[in-house]
Amino acid sequence: MNKIISKEYFSANVIKFEVEAPLIAKSRKAGHFVMVKVGLKGERIPLTIADADLQKGTITLVVQKMGVSSTKLCALEVGDYITDMVGPLGRATHIEKFGTVVCACGGVGTAPMMPIVAALKAAGNKVITVLAARSKDLIILEDQMRVNSDEVIVMTDDGSYGTKGLVTNGIESVINREKVDLCVTIGPAIMMKFVSMLTKKYEVPTLASLNTIMVDGTGMCGACRVSVGGKTKFVCVDGPEFDAHLVDFDEMLMRLGGYRDIEREEMANFSKQ
Amino acid sequence: MNHSEERAQAWREVLRKGMKAKERTDIPRVHMPELDAEYRSHSRLEEVNLGLTAEMAMQEAKRCLDCANPTCMLGCPVGIDIPRFVKNIERGEFLEAAKALKETSALPAVCGRVCPQEKQCESQCIHLKMKKEAVAVGHLERFAADYERESGNISVPTVAPANNIKIAAVGSGPAGLAFAGDMAKLGYEVVVFEALHEIGGVLKYGIPEFRLPNDIVDVEIQNLQAMGVHFVTNCVVGKTISIKDLEDDGFKGIFVASGAGLPRFMNIKGENLVGVMSSNEYLTRVNLMDAANPDSDTPVFKGKKVAVIGGGNTAMDSVRTARRLGAERAIIVYRRSEEEMPARLEEVKHAKEEGIDFMTLHNPIEYIGNEQGRVTHMLLQVMKLGEPDASGRRSPVEIPGKTELIEVDEVVVSVGVSPNPLIPQSVEGLEVTKWGTVVVNNDTMQSAVPIIFAGGDIVRGGATVILAMGDGRKAAAAMDEWIKK
Question: Which tens digits make up the pLDDT trace of B207-260?
């Protein structure tokens, strides 16, 4: 198990893996994640499942090189094995016919949005997907998204592709022209914070898929806790999706940065090796 | 053979008559040799207790009167034949002693280290009635198990002929391992499913190496493997595979021992600041992920001023770990007085020797952080003892207006856990209490779903290694009977 079947570079730092995991492929639903660990002394990190192939018994993961752990994962080649992988974890996305749904994703957040877009479409929703990134080369999975979306709006910070502007500009343009029943957002915490502020203004119900720090990922350590509506929730078992308007994104951003100094140091040591 | 038949054996008679009871009770109780406190408070992995020598063990074994009605056995949740193993030590048959232990306990080297013997077997020892110290049953248990392991002559318990009936354990902590051992002895094909990447549950992620080295847990696991028990890691029953998958796959009984779950917090201001974490997180990083080792990719804060909130064994494990990771000041903050502390006396004693500060009758009411969101101070409410509460302990009462502000750079909250929510969330028909524990028949450990038995923290909400093992043994016996019917 956990054998890498294919590896594809979306960009120099964003890589798509297909990994042999028949049991996970069978039981996963949109919104689920896995915990992955590379090497005996590796760190356990959460990755949301981007896709699964029941015939092949594989799941798809999209990874962005950031720190030591994701860099080690990205260094694996076809035929290598991921040392440990467990899942599917978390609660699956609640899917029903809402009406018109805007799926707003940034950077690698596009990958875990794919199964959600597909499931929403299959449930009879009108799905408008907003893909956002800094520049053209960081826009991923556009063709796949077009398959299940009624419309795809591409936004780039520098205007090198699609419309120049932020993800929020894309969402706002839709809200201004038609009734939106639900917004789903996945991306960097700071992006989701601004998406949430925007949709709150327009009173559009919004779900955000949170990517907090986790250690075990199975409901034991509490590292992933976030404040939702003033109550402490655990992303690994209560989430990963929450009502974005109730999430304390400032606290989440603060907690995400908790290990930044240690991580920077470890990355510097790792790069030296 | 039962206890009295064993006791009637010729060698036991000779041994009993070889020494007068008065001579036996006059021998002072052995002292467990320990690493120097200052040295060990900087040594992350070295075990604090060094174990008895053969001479010390044989001398201590002489203290046991080999009672006709050994009350010590009533105090043991798994019912070890204590006099038999102790008397085998007295006559120098250490391997026989280990064998006697393994007939009833799947993990003697573990129990010899972490059981609260002073509240169990030793609390029932006849010596106490004579105002003498109890026989050091725990130290002797550890000695026999260690002797066997180090001798290289590890005996594998006799296993009944295979009955080709598949049964599963969910979770590889003490309850799951005890269950697996007993079912393997009965001839069942046992598969243990573990959610984490390591086998051992709390023995690996929770209890630090200075109290229970990982390689000792591994030897006990290898022993179970030698008995035919299979282990599957990285598999969450209820997520990766369902209970129904197991049934479809031919499993005839499932023992759920999925253990502790979400850590409890106190819901006070600042509890989500960076540097405030649960003892589960802190200990998992250090023990399971080896985060203090420079080769490990998992980070851990190494605070200089660390406060641990709580008075249980997990709190002691956390505060002593913090000291070993370089804390200049490591404090236990507990809202009652030392007398009410649930931690083992030995842990409290060791912690004090290692320079841990005890702030009893203090309770945190707020954490304060800097602009990066890192904790820098905690505000403590000073308490006093009031009337006894439902637990029978004197309840802590606030002294109005009396607070203290303490500088801290790391806080570990160790005020208990809720049961693991994954199985209750994913199995239909399971009866669950409002605390999230699984409801079982106390005699059989069988749940409302007949194929599912359960034990350990998922049923008790938070207990000791040995009580979890006792549940595992009880469930094994009852499931065997249920399947045969």
Answer: 999 999 999 999 999 999 999 999 999 999 999 999 999 999 999 999 999 998
Task: Residue A24: list chain B partners with CB under 8 A.
Answer: 240
Q: How far is CA B147 from CA B91, B92, B95, B96, B456, in A?
A: 14, 11, 7, 11, 29
**Is residue A271 predicted with pLDDT exceeding 80?**
no
Q: Are residues A175 and A65 in the same domain?
A: no
The closest of B200, B197, B207, B150 to B175, measured between CA atoms, is: B200
Which residue among B205, B289, B373 places its CB closest to the CB of A43? B289
- Assign a CATH topology to domain B265-413: FAD/NAD(P)-binding domain (3.50.50)
Compute the distance between CA of residue B168 and CA of residue A102 in angstroms, rounded to an integer.
44
The amino acid present at B80, given as its one-letter code, is I
The interface predicted TM-score of the complex, written ipTM, equals: 0.94
| Rounded distance between C-alpha atoms, residue B479 and residue B474, angstroms | 9
Q: In the CATH scheme, what architecture does the domain B166-261+417-484 have? A: 3-Layer(bba) Sandwich (3.50)
Confidence of residue B428 (pLDDT cuts 50, 70, 90): confident
> Who's near B330: CB < 8 A, 6+ residues apart?
B306, B308, B319, B320, B322, B323, B355, B356, B357
Residues of B in contact with A45 (CB under 8 A): none
Say which CATH topology domain B3-151 has. Answer: Fumarate Reductase Iron-sulfur Protein; Chain B, domain 2 (1.10.1060)
**Whether A46 contacts A66, CB under 8 Å:** no
> Is the confidence at residue B261, as pLDDT, over 90?
no
> Are A105 and A20 in a shared domain?
no
* Cα end-to-end span (Å), chain A: 29
Same domain, A161 and A62: no
Q: Where in the sequence of chain B do the CATH 3.50.50.60 domains occur?
A: 166-261+417-484, 265-413
Element at A170 (helix H, strand E): helix A167-177
Do A118 and A236 fall within a single domain?
yes
Helix (H) or strand (E) holding B306: strand B305-309
Residues A195 and A123 in one domain: yes
**Are residues B445 and B478 in contact, defined by beta-carbon separation less than 8 angstroms?**
yes
Q: Give the closest-approach CA distance of A57 to chain B in angstroms.
A: 13
User: In this complex, do A23 and B240 lie within 8 Å of one another by their Cβ atoms?
Assistant: yes
3-state secondary structure of A65: coil
